[in-house]
Amino acid sequence: MMPLDPMGLMALSIPQRNVVYAGRDSLMYALTVGMAASGEPDDLPFVWEREQRVIPSMATMLAFDDSWLDAAGIDLKQVVHGGLDLHFHAPLAPEGEALVETRIAGLDDKGAGKAGLVFAETVLSQGAGPACTILSTIFVRGAGGFGGAVGEQATFAKVPDGAPDVTSQAQTACNQALLFRLLGDRNPLHVDPALARQVGFERPILHGACTFGIACAEVLRVFCGLEPARLRRFAARFAGPLYPGETLAFSFWRNGNRIAFRATAAERAAIVLDSGLAELAD
Questions:
Q1: Dihedral angle, C-alpha 191, 197, 200, 202, nearest 10 °
Q2: Residues in domain MaoC-like (predicted)?
Q3: Which of 71, 66, 74, 68 is closest to 2 using CA atoms?
Q4: pTM here?
Q5: Of the candidates 175, 204, 181, 180, the residue with the CA atom closest to the CA atom of residue 191
Q6: What is the DSSP letter of 188?
Q7: Domains of the chain and CATH, by start
Q8: Phi, psi (5° rounding) for residue 106?
Q9: In degrees, to the nearest 5, what angle opens at C-alpha 228 toward C-alphas 222 and 230?
């Protein structure tokens, strides 16, 4: 992979898109991030069209677009997600249309032969105004060495020291990546065993956005009473792979309306999500 082209990327024009989605898509997203996986009746509003609610992190799938990678000279096979930071302005409708506007906000350089990071900002609008602003960190293996940081940078706060206030677990399914990819992210890293081994993983990994969505669903259960409108911000850095079928173990530290969190693959005691932050409405 060649180093990223800062001038070309920062000048890249990404056409705005109008995304149309059905209630079925919102139900599918909720199922792919584990809602009602063990038959929990409280999860039903997210997986049943009667009085349907939407998991806020579904904004990442409505905003998903990798069509600009070719124009940027980026090989999809070298790409993994590095993190997400979502600011929610209004709850998503269960179905309808969304205007998606994306720009390259900044780049970071981890050094020659190492990674190059691309920070893409997406504004998702419905009705009268924005519903969600997303800052996505895209990790491009081998694309560093282009000369240093450019533009806006993503920042993630460290989780506190000491014992967490709350812990919980979520079991993932062995076919979860195969289901999640049907929502739009067809990166072969999540389905092709040979490619996964080629880039250093023992087998295909779960999408970072899926792990992120599982964490968002867990925060809704534990801290929001399953009310999406209570969540104002949700962010995390993707610190390591999660393999489908593994157990996500969550640690939460609460300070008023700010919830810091970390998630590990319990079977390997390996950190998967770090520097997590959920901000709640008053």
A1: 80
A2: 157-266
A3: 74
A4: 0.94
A5: 204
A6: G
A7: 6-280 (3.10.129.10)
A8: 180, 175
A9: 75
Q: What are phi and psi of 245, to 5 degrees?
A: 100, -15
3-state secondary structure (DSSP) of residue 79:
strand
Question: What phi, psi does 122 have (nearest 5°)?
Answer: -125, 130
Quote the distance between the C-alpha of residue 272 and its chain's center.
Answer: 12
In this prediction, residue 249 has a pLDDT band, given cuts at 50, 70 and 90, of: very high
| 162: pLDDT strictly greater than 90 | yes
- Distance, CA of 101 to CA of 65 (rounded, Å): 10
Backbone CA torsion sign across 171, 165, 278, 226: positive
For the chain, how far is it from start to end, CA to CA, in angstroms? 47
Helix (H, G, I), strand (E, B) or coil at 129: strand
Q: What does the angle CA 126 – CA 127 – CA 128 come to, to the nearest 5 degrees?
A: 115
According to DSSP, residue 200 is labeled: T
d(CA 261, CA 265): 14
- Please report which confidence band the pLDDT of residue 1 belongs to, taking 50, 70 and 90 as the band edges: confident
Q: What are the b/e assignments for 62-96, b being 16+ CB within 10 Å?
A: bbbbeebbeebebeeebbbbbbbbbbbeebbbbbe
Strand ranges inside 36-148, DSSP E: 79-88, 96-109, 116-126, 129-140
CA distances from 270 to 146, 168, 265 (A): 31, 16, 5
Q: Which two tokens stand for residue 280?
A: 């709640």
Q: Is 11 helix (H, G, I), strand (E, B) or coil?
A: coil
Structure tokens at 136: 């996505």
